[in-house]
Amino acid sequence: MEAFISTSGTAVPLLLDDINTDQIAPADKSHGHGSDMKAMLFRRWKEGDPNFVFNRPQYQSPRILVAKDNFACGSSRESAVWCMAANGIRVVVARSIADIFKENCLRNGLLAIELPLDKAVLFEEQVTKTDGAQPFAVDLPSQTITCPDGTKIAFEIREAEKIALLEGLDDIGITLKHKADIEAFEAKIKKTKPWLQKAEAHQ
Amino acid sequence: MPQTVFAKIWDAHLVTKRSDGRDIIYVDRHIMHDLHAPIAMQKIVDAGRTVLRPHLTWSSQDHSVSIQPDRDVTAREGSPFNQKVRVLAQKFGIRVFDIGDSEQGISHVIGPELGMVLPGSTYACPDSHACTVGGVGAMAFACGTTELEHVLATQSIAMLRPKTMRVNLTGKLKPGVSAKDVIMRVIAQLGADGARGYVVEYAGPVAEALEIEGRLTLCNMSIEWGARSGLVAPDEKTFAWLKGRPYAPTGAEWDAALADWRQFKTDPGATFDKEHTVDCGGLDPQITWGTNPGQVIGIGDVVPDPSSVPPERRDAFNHSLEYMGLKAGQKIEGLPVDVVFIGSCNNARLSDLDEVAKIVKGKKLASGVRALIVPGSSAVKRAAEAKGYDKVFKDAGFMWGASGCSMCAGGEGIVAAKGQRVLSTTNRNFENRQGAGVRTHLVSPAMAAAAAITGKITDSRAVPTA
């Protein structure tokens, strides 16, 4: 996995609640999950509204996406993360973020930051005021967002997730270190609940 | 110490704790689907890894399959996704519920229906509606593609222990009110993000009184209010429903399983991180008016006013009204309907089709309405046909499809046109999900059937039944 240490760049304000992954990564028969990830990001909104924030010239190379409550709810599709990454977005900042999307970010080296209301409001004002004219910096080791005017906003992250991002850890590799534990668990279940260790149609 | 049913299932599947604080939870049953399975299996190949337990892993062809009635003959090859699944699954020795296979269907429909997903067991699927199987008292984990790769490689999921919530569903449902109406009311009352971070146990007299297929519908929409998972504790009704199903244990193993399953109840005195009560006694059939699943009203209600939400949410509220072509204060009943879709992992089991058949039998679709019924599995299709429903539906003017996800997410190609109003028995009324600019209203099967016959949004209880 790609590590995340710090980044600096344009913060895009998409200040809405309940933005779902169908909106982030619209999929249909001709735009599947294996297709052009760069074009997929907010495709319907980009097509439908010339004033949509991602259509404006100053937001063509975004680094940080800013939303409000319950961001990326709905479908578990990981393409919602992949199409952000394909557009250069490395950080999502919101008042709250859906659980599955947060996990998907972590597995792809994207930093998902949830800010409490007072800090979120402050940051949203900064992003709106800046309107893409100057970069914001996000630094994971110090857990700080730095606004163009020098304002610093601290954010929280679990220590284990911070390390995983900083070191770009391979999550599957970590679990596979416990393969012997998994096999021991299976051996126990085979004795105590054998029906769970097999599944074959008998009719 | 008294324990919740969630804690009992979690602890019974705990392999070990990783040094980063995540619990490795063993996955008993793993059913993938055609959109994500090919990507994850290819990544396993590319990384030089292998699938740890192919005999506990399956893949169903559901999201991208054609639902044309003759597809098992004319379109057996399937979509590019279906073809990739076939090739890679064969490489790893994974059984595919393929096009033309008698056990094919939507993954979360076939899991319980085949007796594969069992009470107190764990189930993983790279789909947010995995939570459906909570209806038989199983714990589901929905995941993305990289997590799916993790499940393939380790037969486990590494998660932080979620918080717990109980929703007590009180009262007694009135005739003509279903599990779908209950879960829509729950989301309306507790919010479209009210369960984020929690595993929800649905309890109380309404949950207990629901038949198993209703419980599957109830749990299916747990993700629509943000839950990690949702379940109803298994009971004697659950065990009776599972007995004799093709993959369920038999003989002495059935007896041992039964003894084990009876422990999966929340003990009296067990505590939850959060607890809510939703009274369902006065509930009428429900319908979504907006573009998130919490925007729900009763069939007799008017579209709510923006002043009913906090000021900072009014822009989104007004946007929903505009997208849906509605005005605050307008009656929802009587609005003309263009398309009716009866299907999906939410509401396409046999009991759902029973409700539809009761309303549709001997009648015709209203002029100008396009309507399709897509059974949740090939087994549901056969069972419905054995009851003569294919004739009932086709005589009325419905298209009777082959099993798949179909118009729920439009992955197969059937969508509605811009501005069309769709009554749908699915679980997501998101903008553009059933086609660009399409206006989706979520309803129960009876409400969808009633709209198909009258051509407008109608209280299903007012339509005479056969």
Mean pLDDT over the full residue set of chain B: 97
CATH topology heading of chain A: Aconitase, domain 4
What is the CATH superfamily classification of the largest domain in chain B? Aconitase, domain 3
* CATH class descriptor name of the largest domain in chain B: Alpha Beta
Poorly predicted runs of 5 or more residues of chain A: none
Can you give the helix content of chain A as a percent range? Answer: 25-40%
Query: Which stretches of chain B are poorly predicted, pLDDT < 50 over at least 5 residues?
Result: none
Radius of gyration of chain B: 21 Å
What is the overall number of helices of chain A? 9
Mean pLDDT of chain A: 94
For the record, the count of structural domains of chain B works out to 3
Number of alpha- plus pi-helical segments of chain B: 16
Indicate the CATH class of chain A: Alpha Beta
What kind of sheet is the major sheet of chain A?
Answer: 7 strands, mixed
Tell me the CATH superfamily of chain A.
Aconitase, domain 4
Greatest interface and its residue counts?
A-B, 60 and 77 residues
Largest sheet of chain B: 5 strands, parallel
Alpha carbon gyration radius of chain A: 20 Å
Sum this structure up briefly:
The complex is a heterodimer of chains A (203) and B (466). Chain A has 203 residues and is an alpha/beta fold.
Fold and architecture overview:
The complex is a heterodimer of chains A (203) and B (466). Chain A is of the alpha/beta class. Chain A has a single domain (6-169), classed as Aconitase, domain 4 (Alpha-Beta Barrel). Chain A is built from nine helices and seven strands, in the order βαααβαβαβαβββααα. Chain A has helices at residues 21-24, 37-40, 43-48, 79-86, 99-107, 117-130, 159-167, 171-176, 179-192, and strands at residues 6-13, 62-66, 91-94, 111-114, 136-139, 144-146, 152-154. Chain B has 466 residues and is α/β, with parallel strands linked by helices. In chain B, α7 (179-190) packs parallel to α9 (212-220). The longest helix of chain B has 13 residues, at 80-92. Chain B has a five-stranded parallel beta sheet, sandwiched between helices. Chain B is built from 16 helices and 19 strands. Chain B folds into three domains: 5-162 and 248-259, Aconitase, domain 3, CATH 3.30.499.10; 163-235 and 265-279, Aconitase, Domain 2 (3-Layer(aba) Sandwich); 331-462, 2-Layer Sandwich (Aconitase, domain 3). Chain B is globular. The interface between A and B is large, with 60 and 77 residues.
